[in-house]
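chain below, 180 aa
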Amino acid sequence: MSDFVYFVGSSLDGYIAQDDGGLAWLDKFDEVDGLGDSYKAFADGVGCVVMGGGTYEWIRNHHPGEWPYKVPCWVFTHHEFGTDDGADVVLVRGDVGTFAGELRRDAGEKDVYIVGGGSLAGQFVAAGLIDRIVLTIVPVALGGGVPLLGGSPLAVPADFTFEGLTERAGAVELRYRRAA
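prediction:
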């Protein structure tokens, strides 16, 4: 069965993007040996992607005319958006748990990749749906921005077990699985 996986990079102080959604702080890590290899290996096992409206808008603005995902994409949003030609995009409103079965179906035997943002990932955690977290912490402090898990308190703590880590040029990839 598919896992719901939050694969994400974070600053030392727990932010995944700047206040304006900017990711320029990550640019200097594009060339770090092996950092992209982990993502490429992960992406090969993805059958469906999920993102929030802000992430969807950011991707469309920064990659005009070239939708980067070749698998079905679900966008949880309260805004009216169009879709790019050739992109397999479904725009939805509602609770993430309502769509969990359909997301797994679209992923087939592969994983569901929770691309972002932090608020959406927090909703998946709150619903008990994140099976794995792959968190790369990069040695940058932002002082503010988009929180890793949206910044909203959870009604019940979500426990994860540590599976391993990899260090590359000061960035640390941590791997966790939801506790049974």
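The chain has a mean pLDDT of 91. The beta strands are 4-10, 15-17, 46-52, 73-76, 89-92, 111-116, 132-137, 146-147, 160-168, 171-178.
thats it, cya
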